[in-house]
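Hi everyone, sorry if this is the wrong subforum. Our group has a chain we'd like a structural model of before ordering constructs, and none of us has done structure prediction before. Sequence below.
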Amino acid sequence: MIKVTEYEKKEEYAVISFIRGPLVEKEEDVIVVEAGCIGYNIHVPLPLLEELPPLGNEVRIYTYLQVKEDSMSLYGFGSRQELKLFKQLLGVNGIGPKGALGILSAMRPDDLHLAVLSGDAKAIAKAPGIGVKTAQRLILDLKDRISVEDMFQSSGDGGKTETGAEKSGLADTAGKEAVDALVALGYSAMEAAKAVRKVEVTDGMTAEEVLKASLKYLVF
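Answer:
Right subforum, don't worry. Here is the predicted structure as tokens:
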């Protein structure tokens, strides 16, 4: 049974759940979104910055508000899944918002999930400001709260990404079923997940097709 930390209890209700409006500015790690005649400065991870549409297009950013005695900062993500992962990182001793954002800038969520499940501290330690010891502590804290299925969850909330593009969950379902089939064949969950991730799964593929395509990555 997963225990809910005191930190997670405090963060259960966000002050600002998300911000939706036209994208006004894009900088190195900050964007400005206009909502209700107010421009919100939002710190975002690099992958999201690269995926955002041109200025003037409407976006929806899921946010975390950090409040200090002398300042307030907003951190934003393209999906609730990414926001949840960000909050989980904040629950690790020694990792603050900047460190968590740095990790998610250096690694996409599915890569981080894989690193945690496989105990790959060196991969996580490549993130700016994160040493090997902190990476090992992160793995220890999160390994029981992340599953192989997390790597195949759709990133869009309500079927849409932050850019508003439609995204189907069919490819994710086929990937999960292929992992289950490989595990039933005797492979470990990690071996199965790694093999399936190497396959470019599309919505038109069945689980059987994904399984066949992934098997070639397991033959040595």
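For your construct planning: Confidence is low (pLDDT under 50) at residues 1-13, 154-168. The two ends are 37 Å apart (CA to CA).
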